Fold this sequence. Notes:
The chain is mainly alpha-helical. The chain is built from 1 helix and no strands. The longest helix has 88 residues, at 2-89. The model has no long low-confidence stretch (mean pLDDT 92).
Amino acid sequence: MILRSIGRARTENKDRVAKAREKARSKQDEVRRRREEEQRLRDEDERDRLREEHDQRERLRREDQERRLQEQRELGQQRQNASIKGDRHD
C-alpha cells in the first residue's frame, strides 16, 4: 500500500515535471517565434528602405540625364539656328 502510494506520487511528480518542462519549452518557443518575427519585420523594413533609396537615386539619375539631354538638344538647336542665320547674312 505504501509502495503504491510512493509509486503513484513518483508518477504524479514525473508528470508534473514533464508538464512544467513542456510549458517552459512552449514559452521559450513562443518567445523565439516572436523574436524571429520581429527580426523578419525589421529586415523587411530595411530592405524596403534600401529599395526606396535605390529607386530615388535611380529616379534622380534619370531626371539628371534627361535634363542634360534636353540642354544638349537646346544647345544644338541654338547652334543650328545661329548657323542658319549666319548663312543668310553671308
